[in-house]
Amino acid sequence: MSGQLLLSLDLPKTDQPDLTDFDRVVIGNSGGKDSQRMLGYVADLAAAAGVLDRVVVVHNDLGVTDTGRPVEWPGTRTLARLQSEAYGLRFEVVHREINGLYQQARQERHAFPSSSARWCTSDQKTSQAMKLVTRLVAEAGVTGRPARVLYCLGLRAEESPARARKAAVAVDGRSNSVRTITRWHPIHQMTEAEVWEGIHASGVPYHPAYGWGMSRLSCSLCVLSSWDDLVLAARLRPALVRDYLTLEREFAEQPNQKLAAIANFRSDFSMADVAAAARNAGPLGFACPRPDCTPVPIIDDVHDPFDPPPCPAHPGEFRTRLAAA
Ligand code: SF4
Ligand SMILES: [Zn+2]
Questions:
Q1: Low-confidence residues in the chain, pLDDT < 70
Q2: Rounded to whole angstroms, how far apart are CA atoms 157 and 167?
Q3: What single DSSP character describes residue 125?
Q4: What is the pLDDT of residue 300?
Q5: Which residues of 285-315 are buried (b: 16+ CB within 10 A; e: fewer)?
Q6: What is the whole-number distance in angstroms between the Cα of residue 238 and the centre of ligand 1?
Q7: Ligand closest in space to the Cα of 289
Q8: Which of 35, 128, 219, 240 should be mutated for ligand 1, with most atoms under 8 A from CB?
Q9: Among 38, 189, 251, 316, which residue has the least CB neighbours within 10 Å?
Q10: Is residue 227 part of a domain?
Q11: Has residue 85 been placed in a domain?
Q12: What is the span of the domain harbouring residue 288?
């Protein structure tokens, strides 16, 4: 999450807060591997401390495009709920009331978000989660002192120099007279290998998009993703790409020249570039688990792994196997 003011006062003395010190423990779960590992880690600590009932998992729903395609990977919300339920935790979904990410770009910003303008994170995620924190604080009914909230995020030092510089524990600038929010990055020091080790040991489901070759989950077409991830995502979600191409064209044709000049999905390449690379790489398809079953090209972005379409050739089987089409 970006743009958070961190106060240097009142920092806990260790990198691992005592969960019993807090009235509510909020865990942000995007459905991605780091969130998932953190969820398991904090849930185990909370169970050991006897405070599971104070823990709330929050998932940010970023919405759908104007043709109804989720900007996150299909099934992410279902997965985030299943993961929370696996640990017996309360699960809440929050979303921006007015516009999801796609509509915010199209109707309000007239531009894609970027690493230097991450309104997608601040407006779609952080602000919405903070509304939930406000609600949870009211619910906690603490009197005579500010309610204490521990807010957990799955950032890791290994991901980037900027993330490495972040403190594992810090008092969040959104603290006020009714609440003290302590921000905690429980898996800050974990390696990617350790994250996967924990996930496999837990037996809790993770998103199949990792198995399809994605290195990160996030939005399917995240402005911060690597080129390889974007091309693969474009092969897996051609209908979503078409919706992003619509935006790119509209942004380029708008009368505001300043915004038209930054119409591309990214400053270093466009969504049209990604779409062309995906076309060159060839179509992908899903088939039922039978090795002899022909994959059906992915043309309409309907491969929700938690609600897979049935195989027309083999009743009783579902199209879950990814293969070149
Ligand atoms: S996943 Fe990427 S595009 Fe989506 S909200 Fe996060 S930073 Fe923005
Ligand atoms: Zn089949």
A1: 1-14
A2: 10
A3: I
A4: 84
A5: bbbbeeeebebbebeebebebeebeebeeee
A6: 19
A7: 2
A8: 219
A9: 316
A10: no
A11: yes
A12: 283-325
Report how far ligand 1's centroid is from the alpha carbon of 313 (Å). Answer: 38
Q: Identify whether residues 163 and 289 lie together within a single domain.
A: no
Among candidate residues 164, 193, 222, the one where a domain is terminated: 193
**Of 174, 193, 212, which residue sits at a domain end?**
193
Distance 306 CA to ligand 1 centre (A): 22
Ligand 1 interacting residues, C-beta cut-off 6 A: 113, 118, 120-121, 124, 218-219, 222-224
For residue range 210-223, what is the model confidence (pLDDT) as tens digits?
Answer: 999 999 998 999 99
Q: What is the pLDDT of residues 134-149, one digit of tens each?
A: 999 999 999 999 999 9
Ligand 2 ion: Cβ-proximal residues, 5 Å cutoff: 288, 293, 311, 313-314
Q: pLDDT tens digits for 232-247?
A: 999 999 999 999 999 9
22 and 166: one domain?
yes
Distance of CA 80 to the CA centre of its chain: 10
Q: What's the predicted TM-score (pTM) here? A: 0.92
User: In angstroms, what CA-CA distances link 133 with 24, 26, 176, 194, 316?
Assistant: 9, 8, 12, 30, 44
Ligand 1: nearest atom to the Cα of 101: 5
User: Within 10 A of 268 (CB to CB), how many other CB atoms are there?
Assistant: 8
Give the distance (Å) from ligand 2 centre to CA of residue 226: 33
Please check whether residues 291 and 189 belong to one and the same domain. no
